Amino acid sequence: MPLMKMIRWFVMGAALATGAAFAAGDEWQPAIGPLKTRWAKDVAPGKVWTEYPRPQMVRKDWLNLNGLWDYTIIDTNVPSPSSYQGKILVPFPVESALSGVMRRLDEKHHLVYRRTFKLPGSWKGRHVLLQFGAADWQTEVFINSESVGTHRGGYDPFTFDITTALKSGPVQEILVDIFDPTEGGQPRGKQVRKPEGICYTPTSGIWQTVWLEPVPELNIVDLFISPDVDHSLVRVVANCNGVGSGDLVEAVVSENGKEIGRKRGGAWSPLEIPIPHPKLWSPNQPFLYDLKIELRNGHKRLDAVTSYFAMRKTGLGKDAKGRTRLMLNGEPIFEIGTLDQGFWPDGIYTAPSDTAMRYDIETTKKLGFNMIRKHVKVEPDRWYYYCDKLGMIVWQDMPSAFLSDAKEDDKEQFEQELRQLIYTHRNHPCITTWVLFNEGWGQYDTVRLARMLKESDPSRLVDDASGWTDQNVGDLIDMHKYPGPDSPKPETNRAAVLGEFGGLGLGVDGHTWAKKTWGYQGMDSRKALTERYVNLLSKALELKESAGLSAAVYTQTTDVETECNGLMTYDREIVKPDEAAVAAANRKLQTEGR
Question: For residue 436, is it left (φ>0), alpha (ψ between -120 and 50) or beta?
Answer without folding.
Answer: alpha
